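Support request, please re-run this one:
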Amino acid sequence: MPDYTVINLKHVIDNEEELLDLLKEKMESFSCQKNDDVDDFIRNKAIEAARHCSSITYLVFYRKYLVGYFTLAVKYLRIDIPKLSKTQQKKLKGATIEKDVAHIAAYLLAQIGKNLVLPEDVSRKIEKNYLIKLAEEQIFDIQKKIGGKCFFLECEPDVKLLEYYRNNGFKEMSERTTKSDNPHQLRVMFKFI
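Re-run finished. Output below.
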């Protein structure tokens, strides 16, 4: 795996205001070209979300290039127990359970995006699953410090996207409709850690 540098945006905001100005330039030029929400978040919302501690964005660099980012948060997750295997049900020990529904605090992969406007020689060096692996490394570090059992995400019901997450150990749990000006379906996927 190439040497990636992962920068915690909250740490920069709190400690390195000069660096923040440089990072803003990199964030403005980020483009995943597939999802406007991913681009909008990194350009317009990530800094404020980090300032308010509602989520923390991690910028991923290879050499001097911003190659991607991911955003993590903690959120309550509602899990229908009958939909789980017996092994998965055992992992819920200690969770609040009411009428076959478990309520647990879980780590949310709130955003993830790969920068697709990179020089070709840089793009060729970037591994397919690098962002999800780096996000999991952060979750594992946090889990060692404060605990936690579950990692989840919400994504568009795109066949390739769902397959990508399945290949990285996530299982489909449910669907939900967004509460926005443009309501659409999202799939909730999770995995125990």
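DSSP finds seven helices and eight strands in the chain. The first strand starts at residue 4 and ends at 8.
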